[in-house]
Design goal:
heterodimer; A: mainly alpha; Leucine-rich Repeat Variant; 3 domains; extended; B: Spore Coat Polysaccharide Biosynthesis Protein SpsA, Chain A
Chain lengths: 362, 469
């Protein structure tokens, strides 16, 4: 039996399925192509119209807003002019201004936005995560006091994007009372950059110290949370955390992320008594941990650290050697460094760079 | 005998048919995902202010690595654009890869370079570094002058001197938009597992540039460059956005890509003997992480823009595409064990097979297809109406996909402001089937021949410089 007839393949007529399939595909594709062209042109017309409308509205609102800010016009005058369908756009307009002003002007903008905020609060539950996040951002800036509960509740939103927006709104120096809650809710924003989270928490100032010290000492907490805690405490130069970090470093089997963060903390607030703990990490298999240990040695300084730093200059990792040279320079060993720079020492180029950077800094 | 010949032709036609259905089906799927992803991206974009991100002290420091070989025409303008980027902390390392023109002189004059000690923090083997210079006018601008060793070697030299957690590879003939760096870094802030991100490449030919900034976006005047605008829109907005949504990003463009320094050093930098070093590096990063069970993510971000000049002559375009295809084959050969290997997840089962069967072998099928098609018609074997209909369907399918890419641009970024440009893009989507596509297929086919002949050269790329305001 012949399963395939090439002659027939090349002599397809309209009655054959393949022929009809090709014709049908041609029709469908033609319709699709025409549809896409029409859609794109309509999209362009629509977008241009929206843009024009927004420009016209903004052009009309801007002078009125200026008059409101200078006290020449009542808030209600402008509020009455906002059509219901332009509420959200008006809030975005006010939001952009509010980000750039402070004091009385900021307060006036919050009052101006106030009647419109309940509408976007109602949308917090039903929109997409991105839309919820945007609305939360506007509520957080223009109506924080009125919508504090909604913002706190958003920390438990199923979307991490919404949670991080809420986290950012609460992690502010003027909102210290939220520090314990934010430390507790860190797992909600775990996937975001840990450096960014540490930076946000450090921005809250000293109010964040007690819950972070507690997190640092608690071995039951995940290592990444303890690492963030150590990072923030280092940024805030929390001297009380030094002994806690030294104690934590005495425990074997720490993850390299946590060990690095603890050593960084000791570099910031450690004392010469803690050099022995730091020295025990100089032989660590991870380059990042050794580098941080050497950096901490240099920052704490003292005559005891000099031989350790000199030894670290021979470490196979250029990073470790770089921090050793920087450490020697920080401990005032410039003459020694100059000798190394002029010698045949394998790291003489690196030492030369450190000395040159010091000259540039001067 | 005749029957056997007919059978061969018929089977070949079936292969071509299957190839087109699979290829266009794949593009259709990625376009649909791209549509979904771009809508989501636009909403996400509005949900966290870019200014907030810039203000965040947690934004990691970045080193821009700019390999430069005979770039005297554009290097000053390009570096000026890099110096005006909005980013809290960044350094620029321009690596002069043994240029035979006056690239180094141009830089020396423009930025008052002085020799400055700087120690390499990694030891990836490279050609000899002759000197390191720092700018007196802009202390964050450094120039590494080295002997010629090709692009990958120059980038590796830059990696050696990089001291920041993130590095960003940028072409010397490119112009980054002012907020490009903060936008491309965004996935690193939003997802701690991110190890690499790529931005979109747009075409600067025809645009008006002043002080290293694209002031006015216009369609190029040159017809080849016009076709490439459409091609880039398709590749980035329909292709890579779709791949990102499907989590199958196998290519971070070497013209604008950001990487975690530690990981690039861990994999040994770029393969110095590779021609398609960007694809090769991305595949190697995937392999490194998957083979060690490391959680990781590689993203494409559609809004950070790098503007680049594209070839305007057939010869230059041919050399470029020939090289790209040789690079693709080279990477496929080096990492053949990834192909259809479940150990590598979607990368091994979807992304790599796409590049292998459709991108790498595609030109063989397409090029031979054109010849066999002509043969069948000349010999009068097939019925002309059916052949023409079949041809029309394949062309129309490709056109629909190009229309979709233009539609995605309209839906998302609308960089070409005039309605005339939009209509021109639609027209180009039809016209490119009447010559440009065939030439393109020929260049890729030629790339296969060049690869088999063992050619490893880069070919000369003419630079015209940017159009000033």
């Amino acid at each position: 039996m012949k399963w395939f007839d090439p002659t027939r393949f090349f002599n397809i007529t309209y009655d054959d399925l393949l022929f009809r399939l090709v014709v049908d595909s041609l029709l469908v594709l033609s319709l699709l192509a025409s549809g896409l062209v029409i859609l794109a042109i309509l999209l362009r017309i629509r977008n241009d119209r929206i843009q024009r409308t927004r420009q016209q509205l903004e052009a009309a609102w801007r002078p009125l807003l200026m008059e409101v800010l200078t006290g020449e016009r009542l808030l209600a005058d402008l509020q009455q002019r906002i059509a219901p369908k332009h509420r959200f756009f008006f809030l975005e307009f006010v939001y952009r201004f509010a980000r750039r002003v402070q004091g009385q002007d900021f307060h006036t903008l919050c009052l101006l936005a106030r009647p419109f905020l309940p509408h976007i609060r109602d949308e917090l539950k039903k929109s997409t995560p991105e839309e919820r996040a945007r609305r939360l951002q506007i509520l957080g800036l223009l109506g924080f006091e009125d919508y504090r509960d909604e913002i706190i509740a958003a920390l438990d939103d199923p979307s991490p994007l919404v949670a991080i927006v809420a986290f950012r709104q609460l992690a502010r120096p003027d909102r210290p009372e939220h520090a314990p809650l934010l430390v507790q809710k860190l797992p909600r924003v775990r996937r975001f950059s840990h450096e960014m989270l540490a930076s946000l928490l450090a921005g809250m100032g000293t109010s964040v110290l007690p819950p972070l010290r507690e997190a640092l000492c608690d071995p039951a907490r995940p290592a990444w949370i303890r690492a963030i805690a150590a990072d923030v405490l280092a940024r805030l130069n929390d001297a009380t955390a030094g002994p806690l970090a030294a104690q934590a470093l005495r425990n074997a089997g720490l993850s390299s992320e946590l060990a690095t963060a603890l050593l960084r903390l000791l570099g910031a607030v450690g004392t010469p008594e803690m050099l022995s703990v730091i020295a025990s990490y100089l032989e660590h298999p991870e380059e990042a941990v050794r580098a941080e240990a050497v950096r901490a040695l240099g920052q704490i300084g003292g005559p005891e650290s000099v031989p350790l730093l000199l030894k670290a200059l021979d470490d196979p990792s250029p990073w470790v050697a770089f921090f050793a040279a920087t450490g020697l320079q920080q401990t005032g060993q410039n003459e020694l460094l100059r000798q190394i720079a002029e010698s045949e020492h394998p790291r003489h180029d690196l030492v030369r760079q450190v000395l040159a950077e010091e000259r540039l800094a001067v | 005998m005749k029957e056997a010949f007919l059978a061969f032709l018929a089977v070949f036609h079936m292969i071509v048919l299957v190839y087109y259905v699979v290829l266009n089906g794949y593009y259709l799927v990625t376009s649909l995902f791209a549509f979904w992803a771009l809508r989501r991206h636009a909403r996400r974009e509005a949900s966290i202010d870019i200014d907030d991100l810039i203000a965040t002290a947690g934004a990691p420091a970045v080193t821009l690595i700019v390999p430069a070989y005979n770039e005297s025409a554009t290097i000053e303008e390009a570096s000026r654009s890099l110096l005006s980027l909005q980013y809290p902390e960044y350094e620029i390392l321009i690596v002069n890869d043994g240029s035979t023109d006056n690239t180094l002189e141009v830089l020396r004059r423009a930025y008052r370079l002085v020799p400055t000690p700087r120690y390499p923090m990694a030891r990836i083997p490279t050609a000899h570094v002759r000197g390191v210079y720092q700018s007196r006018t802009h202390p964050n601008l450094w120039v590494i002058d080295k002997e010629n060793g090709k692009r990958a070697d120059a980038i590796n030299a830059g990696i050696n001197y990089c001291r920041t957690p993130l590095l960003c590879i940028v072409d010397a003939d490119g112009i980054l938009e002012r907020d490009a760096l903060i936008r491309i870094v965004r996935p690193f802030l939003e997802d701690d597992r991110t190890i690499a991100t790529g931005g979109i490449i747009r075409i600067v030919n025809g645009c008006v540039v002043r002080d290293g900034v694209v002031q006015e976006v216009r369609m190029p005047r040159n017809i080849l460059a016009k076709f490439q605008v459409l091609e880039y829109l398709r590749a980035f907005l329909a292709g890579r956005v779709g791949w990102d949504a499907l989590k199958i990003m196998l290519l971070i463009s070497g013209a604008f890509g950001m990487f975690r320094r530690s990981l690039v050093v861990a994999v040994g930098g770029l393969a110095h003997d590779s021609i398609g070093e960007d694809l090769e590096l991305t595949v190697r990063l995937h392999r490194y992480c998957r083979e060690r069970g490391m959680p990781y993510a590689i993203h494409f971000v559609p809004d950070p823009v790098a503007w680049t000049e594209v070839p305007e002559t057939i010869a230059t375009l041919g050399r470029q595409r020939d090289r790209w295809h040789r690079g693709l084959i080279d990477t496929m050969r080096r990492h053949i064990r990834v192909l259809l290997n479940p150990r590598y997840g979607r990368i091994g089962l979807v992304a790599f097979p796409y590049f292998f069967f459709l991108e790498m072998l595609g030109p063989v099928i397409e090029f031979t297809g054109y010849i066999v098609f002509a043969l069948v018609l000349a010999l009068g074997i097939a019925q002309l109406p059916f052949v023409l209909l079949f041809l029309a369907v394949t062309i129309l399918f490709g056109t629909v996909l190009s229309f979709a890419a233009v539609g995605l641009e309209e839906l998302s970024f609308r960089r070409y402001p005039r309605i005339r440009d939009l209509l021109e893009l639609f027209l180009l989507a039809i016209l490119e089937n009447l010559g440009y596509r065939q030439i393109h297929t020929y260049f890729r086919f030629r790339g296969i021949i060049s690869y088999l002949r063992g050619q490893t050269g880069w070919g000369h790329m003419e630079r015209k410089g940017f159009r000033k305001a």
